[in-house]
C-alpha cells in the first residue's frame, strides 16, 4: 500500500463495565475467547477479532498499522485529526478523525508484510 496505512482485523471496545461486557460477548453472542489478560479479553468473531479492554469508555476503536507511528501521527494531526491518547513506549496512539471515527495507530510488524 503506497500510503503506509494498513488495517488490522482488530476492533477494541474499552469499557468500565468490563465483566458484564466480557460475559455478554462470551455468552449472548457465543464468541470464542482467544486471548485473556488482566485488563483485556480477545474474542474471535470471524472477519474481525474483538477486544474488550478495561478502562474509560470511548466507543469502538479500529486499528491501522504503519511503519512509523510518529510520522503517521503527525500526518493525521496535520490533516485535522485529534490525538486522544498515546503511548510511545508501545508505540501507539489513538486518534479521532474529522468525521468521528476513532482508531489506534500501531506499528506494522515488518515480518508480517
From TrEMBL:
Matching Pfam families: Glyoxalase_6 (PF18029)
All copies of domain Glyoxalase-like, residue ranges: 11-104
Protein name: Glyoxalase-like domain-containing protein
Amino acid at each position: 500500500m503506497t500510503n503506509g496505512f494498513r488495517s488490522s482485523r482488530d476492533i477494541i471496545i474499552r469499557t468500565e463495565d468490563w465483566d458484564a461486557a466480557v460475559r455478554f460477548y462470551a455468552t449472548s453472542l457465543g464468541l470464542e475467547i482467544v486471548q485473556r489478560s488482566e485488563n483485556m479479553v480477545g474474542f474471535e468473531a470471524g472477519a474481525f477479532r474483538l477486544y474488550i479492554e478495561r478502562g474509560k469508555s470511548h466507543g469502538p476503536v479500529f486499528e491501522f498499522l504503519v511503519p512509523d507511528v510518529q510520522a503517521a501521527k503527525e500526518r493525521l494531526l496535520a490533516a485535522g485529526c485529534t490525538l486522544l491518547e498515546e503511548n510511545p513506549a508501545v508505540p501507539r496512539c489513538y486518534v479521532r478523525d474529522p468525521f468521528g471515527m476513532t482508531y489506534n495507530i500501531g506499528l506494522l510488524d515488518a515480518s508480517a508484510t
